[in-house]
Write a structure and sequence with these properties.
Bound molecules: magnesium ion
Strand content: 35-45%
Shape: globular
Number of domains: 2
CATH class of the largest domain: Alpha Beta
GO biological process, one term: carboxylic acid metabolic process
Order of helices and strands: EEEEEEHEEEEEEEHHEEEEHEEEE
Keywords: Hydrolase, Metal-binding
InterPro entries: Fumarylacetoacetase-like_C, Fumarylacetoacetase_C_sf, Rv2993c-like_N
Helix content: 10-25%
GO molecular function, one term: isomerase activity
Protein name: Fumarylacetoacetate hydrolase family protein
Number of helices: 4
CATH architecture of the largest domain: Alpha-Beta Complex
Length: about 260
């Protein structure tokens, strides 16, 4: 199932998106998309709606250096254990919403990432049981003020600006995350192209590692790390992150 959230002619709604590309229907979900969703009976042509970020997370956890080639381009080796950090949920935006570069940064980078969306409250989840707590997967951009990340020595400011976590367009359930292509384009030029099979820590291992630290709640998002090819974005450009089998998350870049 493709789960999304839209601004419809009748208000904001969680929806299931069905049908062929260009002809999709958005069926309104009652209450919330977790568990087995029920439907209100209302639906819209997707083209009548504006697509929003598919979920409102209580928290976003992100993995640093989960691809060896990205660790190398950052000037080091990947750590043996996953390094985790957090982005505030106020950094989430949906497809087509502008990424706003703050005037305090001289270098704002894209980081295309494959994202896990948690489906139920959980703690201390063994890797082999991660599938039981995952709602589905989506596409993310871990936007980073690279100069501030390096200057501060920790990452809260550089990763935390409003608009620095584009998500979407959909959460795809019943999805095999083990080997799909992830690609980032800047103004149509391919900048990152890799596969989730090259992640150093798998989806299951990541859920186990993070849930050993903190309770995860429905809707929480885990960004699984970016592959090699990161780079800066400037105002007027457009960045698009695609994950095979899920879709493309595209956002314009503006200066504040
Ligand atoms: Mg990242």
């Amino acid at each position: 199932m493709k789960l999304g959230r839209v601004a419809s002619p009748d208000g904001v709604a969680f929806v299931a998106v069905e049908g062929e590309p260009g002809q999709e229907t958005a069926r309104e979900i009652a209450e919330h998309p977790f568990g087995t969703p029920t439907f209100t009976g209302r639906s819209w042509q997707l083209s009548q709606t504006r697509i929003l970020a598919p979920i409102l997370a209580t928290k976003i956890i992100a993995i640093g250096k989960n691809y060896a080639a990205h660790a190398a381009e950052m000037g080091g080796e990947a750590p043996a254990d996953p390094v985790i950090f957090m982005k505030p949920n106020t950094s989430i935006i949906g497809p087509e919403a502008p990424i706003v570069r703050p005037p305090s940064s001289e270098r704002v980078d894209y980081e295309g990432e494959f994202a896990i969306v948690i489906g139920r409250p959980c703690k201390d989840v063994p890797a082999a049981k991660a599938g039981e707590v995952i709602l589905g997967y989506t596409v993310a951009n871990d936007v980073t003020a690279r100069d501030q990340q390096q200057h501060d020595g920790q990452w809260t400011r550089g990763k935390g600006y409003d608009t620095f976590c584009p998500l979407g367009p959909w959460i795809v359930t019943d999805f095999d995350p083990s080997d799909v292509q992830i690609k980032t384009e800047l103004d149509g030029e391919v900048k990152q192209s890799s596969r989730t099979s090259l992640m150093l820590h798998s989806v299951g291992e990541i859920v186990e590692w993070v849930s050993r630290v903190m309770t995860l709640l429905p809707g929480d998002v885990i960004l699984t790390g970016t592959p090699e090819g990161i780079g800066p974005m400037t105002a007027g450009q457009r960045v698009s992150v695609s994950v095979e089998g899920i879709g493309t998350l595209s956002n314009p870049v503006v200066d504040k």
